[in-house]
Amino acid sequence: MSDATTLLVVKDLATTFQTPSGPLPAVGGVSFTLKENETLGIVGESGSGKTVLSRTIMGLQPRRNVEVTGSVLLNGFEVVGASEEAKRAIWGLEVAMVFQDPMTSLNPVMRIGKQIDEILRVRLKMDRHAAKARAIELLELVGIPSPAERYGVFPGELSGGMRQRVVIATALAGSPKLLMADEPTTGLDVTIQAQILNLLQSVKDQMSMSVVLVTHDLGVVATRTSRIIVMYAGRIVEMGTTRDVFARHRMPYTRALLEGSPKVSNPSHTRLLAIPGRPPNLLDLPQGCAFAPRCSFATDICRKERPELEPSFEDGHAFACWNPLPVSQGVPA
Amino acid sequence: MFWICVGWIALNIVGAIFANVLPLQNPLFQNYASVNAGPSLHHLFGTDDLGRDIFARVVYGSRVSIEVSLGAMLIGFGLGAPLGMLAAYRRGKFDSILTAVMYVFLAFPAIIATIAVLSFWTPRSLLKIIVVVGIASVPLVYRVIRSATMNFASRDFVIAAKVQGATDRRILIKELLPNIAPVGVSFLLIGIATVVTLEGALAFLGLSVNPPTPSWGNMINESLSILQINPWLAIFPSLAMCLFLLSLNFIGDRLRAHFEVSEAKL
């Protein structure tokens, strides 16, 4: 793993929206790297900035009222500040995206085959027959039964799980090096979720891509990522290998997240520990650590000064906390 | 019922196109031997006060109505639809300014503007009527298409197409246009119906094509002075217009219902 080449370098990335009530720092100073063939999980509550982060990495932000600073180096291409024209060249071919809701991420009036064809014909300059053959191949790759017949159906004729497979096929069409999956299973049945996640993993291996898996569900990232970033209020509060984050986390927020997700090993009727309070208002962030108002370990310094991300163990583990949990206190996954 | 309406519209259009080759009497030929005659085998709808065959004039009259409505809608949709789509897709200043301008036009009663322009822009011709009515319809088309596009422009599949590297033009034409087409078609039918009525109103005020060219509106206008002697001259063009509009509205309604259902299914 250590000698694999780096695909993505994110440095001091900040995304600030200009709103009528003032600047809103949705992402504030995020840095991390992603290697080839690696799967990175980004977890956090709703509103923690994970979706904005993933879209900023793609260079996908509103045309107006947004300021992006820092750097996103994707396979040598600087995304921040690049023109639409320049980004269009990498979109689809270098980086592709799988969306949350397969009900809205496919064009309802276009045959699914055509939606996969599009990129093949326009971007890869394939002729009609080659594109169709490839599209059917992709449909087969994502596990759609009788792909040749399904090529001509409309999205409305498919179930949610099947549609999400089609969405993945469209994302794979350009053989991207990086696949951004933003809550790819949130809109799906639990039984389908595992299938889609397994599918993502198998296509990642087959096509040797890197995957960024954005989710609020720790169960999703537990077995399928090699590294995890935990976000809170637009910042990374802990990151490291999946193993370390689950077993040896130092940040109380990470623990709170883990305690808040159900485990099969718990006896039935175990109460889940909810995190008290609500995520902070990004327009009015507390002076110190953003998690301090909800944290049972908070002390004076937590309310005064924001902790920086500090390296802790090997393998790039780091956390931002003044009162970290002792190493032994981790909850095993 | 739907197909009867479609058939009726088709019949009208075929009649308008092939009026000269159909076995009709000359709509301009004045036969003073039989003026204000009632319907008979020789004159199906009777004759007017100058002895002209009303049936022939109704068929020829549909030409003006259809030409004006299609021509005006061509201009209205040709300008209004692309602008509306672009504004909804781009948003920002472009949208704000354009929409503000359109709303100013909308605030001004179109019929009065049309009457004013046509009164001064002489000599009148079919083309001038088409241009004036067409331009008057642009803000209406713009508003409908803009809101229809806005409905889709923020959906994920547009972003998905974008991150596949599709250009804005491609997104507008390939992704958005097919989605708003149902709305566009329904509104087109309503638009045609409105323009047919508008032509009737203009003709009634003597602002449509110059006599003796027949149009439904012209004929109704001419019938005014002889309404008591010969009601047929008023009845038949009115009936023709009425059935034409009824069919259009019915088709529009059915299409909208059909598309709404398939939308809900998705």
Chart the SSEs and their pairings.
The complex is a heterodimer of chains A (333) and B (266).
Chain A: E1 6-19, E2 22-35, E3 39-43, H1 50-58, E4 66-74, E5 77-78, H2 84-90, E6 95-98, H3 112-122, H4 128-141, H5 147-150, H6 160-172, E7 178-182, H7 190-207, E8 210-215, H8 218-222, E9 227-232, E10 235-241, H9 242-247, H10 252-259, H11 300-304, E11 310-311, E12 318-319
Parallel strand pairs in A: 3-8, 3-9, 6-7, 7-8
Antiparallel strand pairs in A: 1-2, 1-4, 4-5, 9-10, 10-12, 11-12
Helix pairs in contact in A: 3-4, 3-6, 4-6, 6-7
Chain B: H1 2-17, H2 54-90, H3 92-107, H4 110-120, H5 126-153, H6 156-162, H7 168-204, H8 216-223, H9 232-265
Helix pairs in contact in B: 1-2, 1-9, 2-3, 2-5, 2-7, 2-8, 2-9, 3-5, 4-5, 5-7, 6-7, 7-8, 7-9, 8-9
Describe this structure in words.
- The complex is a heterodimer of chains A (333) and B (266).
- In chain A, 30% of the residues lie in helices and 23% in strands.
- Chain A is an alpha/beta fold and 333 residues long.
- In chain A, a hairpin with a 2-residue loop joins strand 9 and strand 10 (235-241).
- Chain A is globular and about 65 Å long.
- The two termini of chain A are 23 Å apart.
- Chain B has 266 residues and is mainly alpha-helical.
- Chain B has a single domain (54-265), classed as Orthogonal Bundle (MetI-like fold).
- In chain B, 73% of the residues lie in helices and 0% in strands.
- Chain B has helices at residues 2-17, 54-90, 92-107, 110-120, 126-153, 156-162, 168-204, 216-223, 232-265.
- The radius of gyration of chain B is 22 Å and the shape is elongated.
- The model of chain B has no long low-confidence stretch (mean pLDDT 84).
- The chains are: A alpha/beta (333), B mainly alpha (266).
- The A-B interface holds A 58, 60, 63-64, 88-89, 91-93, 95-97, 99-101, 103-110, 118-119, 122-123, 155-156, 167, 170, 173-174 and B 90-92, 155-157, 159-167, 170, 174-175, 178-179, 181, 262-263, 265-266.
